[in-house]
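Table S4 entry, TauD/TfdA-like domain-containing protein.
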Amino acid sequence: MKGTFRQRPEQPHITLRRQLLDGSSSLSNPAPPRKASAADVEGVGALAQEQLTEHGVVAISLDRPMTNREYLAFGALLGTAQLEHSPAVQPFVEEGVILNLVTCEPATSNPDLQPFAANWLALHSESSSLPIAAQPRFVSLMCLAADGDSAAETVLVPMRQVFDALTDEDRKLLANTRYDGRDEAPPLLRYDRGRPVFSIRDFQDENLEWECLCGAAEPAEVDEALIRLYAAMYGGRCYHISWQCGLLVVIDNTVHFHGRTIACAPPKNGPLRHLKRLRLSAAAS
């Protein structure tokens, strides 16, 4: 069975999304970042591994941003850096794998360019349409320059919390539904050693074409499960990260959804916000 999910004004997640991402809501702060020296790459890597295992996210306040060489060495302690393939972002890529995220556009609907724009980034898991082996396990972000109190903030939502808000029937439907037209795409919900993992993004005004392998279900039931999933993503507890120079964050892509609040337009004078991103496949065990 196949269908199309379309966003409609009466769906509750639309209001919840706006409240979370328009920059006006009060967000919970995660624990204060740990402090470390950028030159101590192995020590930073050990701290990151420890915190990722325990919390699925780590924030480390470095005494300075790492050099590209240090950053790549740090990433190699966690996994294998993934190449940035999109032609649209190549002007921002260094070493084939480091993406420079600089706020330089007022707004855009192009998903590839939204990380560089001032509009919000809807909640998502990274590379959700790709096969599981091709999805990054970790997303690392390092701040080289922040643009003040009005800057966009990164938002994290725990997948377990979203899972707990769903009914058993919702979970069954989502575990048997995937993006249509992508034979190797994982189900929207899967289990990794008993832990729920979602592979989905909020399509906002775009259509979500889906395929459900649960033969007894009706299309309306899948759409209703998606409505409740999106409402759970935006309606529960969340954490935010306010960026400052030298802050290093790593997010486990199987533990948290992530997004970004709306930012002020790119400033005419003064520094632009500048983050460097690495997407990392998990290290072989």
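The first strand starts at residue 2 and ends at 5.
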